Amino acid sequence: MEQNQVTPSALERRIDIAVSLADIEKEVDARLKRMARTVKMPGFRPGKVPMKIVAQTHGGQARGEAVGAAVEKAFGDKVREQNLRVAGYPNIEPKDAATEGTLEFSAVFEIYPEVAIGDLAGQQIERPTLVVGDAEVDKTLDVLRKQRTSFTAADRAAAEGDRVVIDFTGRKDGEVFQGGQAEDFPFVIGAGAMLKDFETAVTGLTAGESKTFDMTFPDDYHAAELAGKTVQFEIKVKQVEGPVLPEIDADFARSLGVADGDVAKLREEVKGNLEREVKRRIQAKVKEQVMNALIAVTPIEVPKALVQGESQQLAENARRDLEMRGMKTKDIPVDPSWFTEQAERRVRLGLIMAELVKANELHAKPEQIRTLVEEMAQSYEDPSELVRWYYAQPERLAQAEAVVIEDNVVAWVSEKAQTTDKDVTFDELMGNAA
User: Fold this and answer.
1) What CATH code is assigned to 149-244?
2) pTM for this prediction
3) Most CB within 10 Å of its CB: which of 25, 259, 305, 341?
4) Running DSSP on this structure, what letter comes out for residue 44?
């Protein structure tokens, strides 16, 4: 009666199962009796509806539930007998022919692969190293100053970094095109808000000056009707304003949350934040290399059912993200197949890491979780409040636990692989290098 064979996928299995019609009929009868206790029907008191009527109205539901439960139990028994780890849900296929007195089905499903972590000794991992010093603090403070730039009227020609206020009219084939006209329009030259050719045309003009020039839109311009087209602009500069950076003084420190305006304290806080960010980025770069190394030395086939489930979850996450941005997802179809490659990598790493954690006891310890939460809380005004927030719900703490487990895996693999340190610059680590 039972058949268990490998289909084209090494992870796919087929089990034939049979359930007794007599057992199903007993279960149907039992379910109908339970329903009869509470079923409501006009003309009858609750619990007093005749069984014949209950069977007529709810018999189909009771039979479907009984067959489903019987098949589920029979499938579970077979799987346990053969010690199979089922990945995803089985596809139950009814058989046309069956032995008298039984219903027969085939269950097609996938199992989890056997995972054997490969030899990591030949894998190369490069760990960036950077010590945060005064130069990095100065660079960051300079960025913070630029973010707080103010502008003041300048009696000179407009230059890079200046804010200009202009009127402009753009025409294509002599007609003003959509979005091609504005008054009192401000922008900063060099900030990238306008096309480079437009900024170049404005550069060098003073307040009160006008100019007419031709400009060709890029071939990949977002407005298809203008992409690659040449238009004519008329502009008039109404105001030129030069940038003024704030001084690094008590007022500047207070604007960044240092209540007493102590500049030395501000520098300490900036340095502390930078050190945490540098540590986070180094960990991320090492982690990516570790994951790639694990995949390289541990080739496994992943269950398609798990990949499909992960793809659907990623698609759902993308929909929610679009909705949070104010977009209507019904107008933007999100296909799970777009995420198949990413989903397969996530499933593969999940299987490999689960085996690695189990085999080497890399589970998160309570003190590790506490240390991580307290470290994350340091960037908040009241660190204890964030700590309480994490420990208030198990789901939140589980997120921290997952991070600790990943850190444990990274540390373990780094010890087994050929890990070398490499000095990097601040801009390289932050992704600002040219």
Assistant:
1) 3.10.50.40
2) 0.74
3) 305
4) B
